Amino acid sequence: MKTLANFIDGKLVAPAEGIYIDSLNPATGEVNGKVPDSTAKDVNLAVEAANRAFPSWSKTTRAYRSALMIKVADLLEQKLEEFALEESKDQGKPVSLARTVDIPRAIYNFRFFANSILNRHEKATELDGIALNYVHRTSAGVAGLISPWNLPLYLLTWKIAPAMAAGCTSVCKPSEFTSVTAWMLCSILNEAGVVNMVFGTGPNAGAPLVSHPDVPLISFTGGTATGELIYKAAAPLNKKLSLELGGKNANIVFADADFDEALKTTVNSSFANQGEICLCGSRIFVEKPIFDRFTKELAAAADKLVVGNPTVTGTTTGALVSEQHLAKVASYIDLARAEGGTVLSGGSRVTDGALARGFFIRPTVIVGLPAIDCRVQQEEIFGPVVTVTPFDTEDEAVRFANSTKYGLSASLWTENGKRAHRVAQQLQVSVRGGGS
Ligand code: NDP
């Protein structure tokens, strides 16, 4: 078992209060690590270190920062297997997913921003012989970076890498549920004070970071309710704020779609990472002529997914991140039944064999619920649970898809190019609700 430490000014340090949280392996229910339960004292130390490092770091050349970030990417790549296994144990995701998506994308984040900073250009506008207006960008200062548990290293590096590239120093607060790979990353980041890591809970460590007067910029990815709290805390301090929030994404399948491709991709986009991805399609709308066949084949494919120990290659569906999250997901399956839905596949916790100790739910397909006036179709479940609903017309599909407060993403399947553009332009994604 690992005992994690905060990473402040380039050094691993114990939390000021000496208190730790048990972080469980979701597949076994056993303690996987001890995570510092940091407080404002630790956050203050980290912000001081980041502030001290800022003047010299922000003056380094782009070429210097870029080269350093490429080195970080290379070192991470050398340890890909080790990181993938730990991410799987920490979060419950299949190791194959961590190996092919999470960790490679974390590496890519460093490479991408290392290159983009070298190729940055800005616009200038001319005021006929009077003035030339141009953009001059400066580094903002210490960035507060708060990330969720579902794609732990990938989403955190999506914040760290652009901050480093832009000459900002940072204080990160990863999710208390999945801190291990962020802690492992500390051994690769060795410029003192440039990236600092404070582990712990949202209220104890995240909130003081958001309200810290010397942190002018907050980048947050997580739930919509938490995003609202952060918005309220940051607004009076006029902070720069980036919020990437929840989703309840529509996946619209027209009768003229390539059936096999739409089905195969829907299985993946609904159930990958146990449905714990903000972009997962969780409301599937299928045009009536193919509805029965599509739902039948989707349920059969969901039944074939391999629910099992996530560290074993071949497992396609791992464990949910925590018992508390499992209870939330299970409560929505109960609610679906109460709201008149029929469960075609899954619908229960795994209670037999070794998996009974972990937090496993079988991939679940539900039909028979109203598209709009129904909590299961409106609220984010964030688990391996999808609803499938028939529609008659294009207008109805658009109305159903746009009927939630979340507007993160949507997908549509048709072989008709004109329809694809027409419908896509009516889908209200990234313009309201959880969109960023
Ligand atoms: P949460 O909102 O619960 O937590 C996100 C982060 O915020 C965690 O580090 C959490 O700490 C911290 N936090 C909690 N409360 C506060 C607070 N008051 N002040 C500061 N920080 C706080 O989200 P989850 O971790 O449960 O992640 C799942 C959610 O994230 C889903 O809604 C999902 O849709 C969304 N998400 C959105 C993405 C996007 O790009 N739009 C991508 C991925 C996920 P702690 O862990 O200790 O609670």
Automatic annotation (TrEMBL):
Active site (catalytic residues): 244
Pfam families with a match to the protein in the record: Aldedh (PF00171)
Keyword Phosphoprotein: no
Keyword Hydrolase: no
Top-level lineage group: Eukaryota
CDD domains from the UniProt entry: ALDH_F8_HMSADH
An annotated Gene Ontology molecular function: oxidoreductase activity, acting on the aldehyde or oxo group of donors, NAD or NADP as acceptor
Domain Aldehyde dehydrogenase: 20-430
Coiled coil: none
Swiss-Prot/TrEMBL keywords: NAD, Oxidoreductase
Family the entry assigns: Belongs to the aldehyde dehydrogenase family.
The name this protein goes by in its record: Aldehyde dehydrogenase domain-containing protein
Source species: Blyttiomyces helicus
